[in-house]
Specification:
The chain is mainly β. The chain has four helices and 13 strands. The chain has a single domain, classed as Beta Barrel (M1 Pyruvate Kinase, Domain 3).
């Protein structure tokens, strides 16, 4: 299982979309340098309102570019960073990764996958109907959330478009991703 970084994005203030950058720097235990969601404790406004002391399991948001292609077939025109992700990937089925999977991005950065991004109504403010388009049902009728995955930074480093993404699966039984 390997993929590539297609784009990297960050924003220093709360905004739905994040502009693309030539590179981002991941900081161990914090997230993306210069991004509003970086920090050891929760930085997403809805979570801060509940309990600002909780650990930040959403330091880095990753989304696969293949979702943009799927949604284009349903009339949505999306580009990297527009849905608030920090890292847009290609060639790696992010949603199939288990909890605890390790992702090596570029030469040094290592992320630990914590869970799924739960699509929210903000998607509909960006494009009407987008939230429903990022949800599906599997063959057993279980809800499938397609809006990317969340991770924490274990080892920092610079990440650029074109960087390879390596995957190391955790030992033991694979635990399916749940929203974080």
């Amino acid at each position: 299982m390997n993929g590539r970084v297609l784009a990297v994005s960050r924003h220093g203030s709360y905004s739905f979309s994040k502009p693309n950058a030539a590179e981002i720097t991941l900081l161990a235990g914090l997230g993306v340098a210069g991004d509003v969601h970086a920090g050891a404790t929760v930085k997403h406004r809805s979570r801060m309102a509940k309990d600002p002391s909780l650990p930040n399991l959403r330091q880095v948001h990753l989304m696969q570019a293949e979702l943009f292609e799927e949604l284009a077939g349903r009339g949505f025109s999306l580009a990297p960073g527009q849905l608030g992700e920090n890292v847009t990937t290609r060639g790696l089925d992010l949603l199939a990764l288990p909890q605890g999977a390790l992702l090596r991005l570029g030469a040094a950065a290592v992320l630990r996958v914590t869970g799924l991004r739960n699509p929210c109504l903000q998607l509909n403010h960006f494009a009407p109907g987008l939230m429903a388009a990022t949800l599906d049902r599997d063959a057993a009728g279980r809800l499938v959330r397609k809006a990317g995955i969340m991770a924490v930074v274990l080892a920092g480093g610079v990440v650029r478009p074109g960087d390879a993404i390596g995957v190391a699966l955790p030992e033991g039984p694979a635990l399916a991703l749940e929203p974080v």
